[in-house]
Each structure stands twice: as structure tokens, then as C-alpha cells.
Amino acid sequence: MSQFLQKRLMALSGILWIIYLLIHMLANLNFLTGADNFNGFYGWFNDSIILRWSIIILLILSILFHIYSAISRQFDSNKKRDIAYKKPYPKAIPRSIAWSGALLLLSFIVFHFFQMQLLESRDFYQEVMCL
């Protein structure tokens, strides 16, 4: 896959996640409209098995592609460079901090996914109130 196409697809997968996060935020703002609306929306969404799992699979594939692209582009860039960088990484942001931020975000996404899959209650409003 060409570098140009890989960059574009990586950006597209990032945009897909931003759109999902905006929709997820708006759906959660539905909490402020009351228990009936909130439970009604999430009840409908959870009962729409094809829609729900299509979105989940699309998001999983896009984040895996995003991670793969980021890592492979970094390794490819390091391998193709004939002369080493004078400064291997900016002193202001150590590499461990940059990678730990990405790992923390990925850990939250995985945790939140399993947390939501394990909810057995049909009263989602009450579940959120307890959190």
C-alpha cells in the first residue's frame, strides 16, 4: 500500500472515530431529557442487533487499522532514514509519555466496551445514575 493511500486511510479512520464520539456524546446528552427517553433510545439501539454490531465491528477494524498504520509508518520512516536524527525525540515530550497517552486511550476504549457489554439491566438511566 502506498504511503499516500495509507496516510489518507489513517486519517479517514481517525475522522470516523471523531464522528462516532460526537454521536455518542449527543446520545449520552439524551440523559438530561429523562429516564424514559434515555432508556428508550438505548433499548432501541441494543435491540437493533445488526446496526449495533455493524458499528462495533467498523469501529474495531478502523482502530486496529489506525494503530497498525501508525506503528508501521513509524518503523518505515525510521528504517528509510539514512542519517540519524540529531535529537531522537523532542525533550519536551518524552517518547514514553506520548506512547503511554495512546495506550491509556486504547485501554479506556477496551474497558468501556466491555463495561457496556456486561450491563444486564434494562434501566440504563439508573445504571448511569449509580456511576
Give a topology summary:
Layout: H1 3-29, H2 35-47, H3 49-80, H4 95-117, H5 124-130
Terminal CA distance: 45 Å
Gyration radius from CA atoms, angstroms: 20 Å
SSE topology string: HHHHH
Query: What does the average pLDDT come to?
Result: 85
How many DSSP E strands? 0
Helix content: over 70%
Counted by DSSP, the helix tally is: 5
The major sheet is characterized as: none
Large-scale geometry: elongated
Q: What proportion strand?
A: under 5%
pLDDT below 50 for ≥5 consecutive residues: which ranges? none
Structural class, by secondary structure, is mainly alpha
- Number of structurally distinct domains: 1
Summarize the structure.
With 131 residues, the protein is mostly helical. It is built from five helices and no strands. The longest helix is centred in the middle third of the chain and has 32 residues, at 49-80.
Task: Describe what you observe in this structure.
It is a single chain. By secondary structure, the protein is an all-alpha fold. It has one domain. The chain contains 5 helices and no strands. α1 runs antiparallel to α3 (49-80).
What structural keywords apply?
131 residues, mainly alpha, 5 helices, 0% strand, elongated
